[in-house]
Amino acid sequence: MPDTYDTVRSILTSAFRVPEDEIRPERTLEQLDLDSLALTELVLVLHERFGVRIDGAYAARGTTVAQVADHLDALRAGTAASS
Fold it and tell me: Where does the Carrier domain start and stop, copy by copy (predicted)?
């Protein structure tokens, strides 16, 4: 997760202007002030960056940054369940 987490963190700071010191693994996307439009954009940015399609449940406001990174790792490893 460290590389994936760092990439997600970088995307949040550069594309969504979330202050770096606010991003921690246990913080939810809602706590980082991402609204529904930002979540949709995040899914697209992550798809472009990682080449995998994120399940909508992992781009919800209650999802933590760590859960997003873990889901990306699972998708990239081919171990995530399809919905």
Answer: 2-76
Exposure of 41 in the CB half-sphere (CA atoms within 13 A)? 11
Structure letter (DSSP) for residue 20:
G
CB atoms within 10 A of CB 77: 9
pLDDT 10s digits, 51-80 = 999 887 888 999 999 999 999 999 999 876
- Note whether 77 and 3 are within 8 A (CB): no
Q: How far apart are CA 40 and CA 73, in angstroms?
A: 19
| Beta carbons of 47 and 56 less than 8 angstroms apart | no
| Distance of alpha carbon 48 from alpha carbon 61, whole angstroms | 20
3-state secondary structure of 77: helix
Tokens matching residue 11: 């995307």
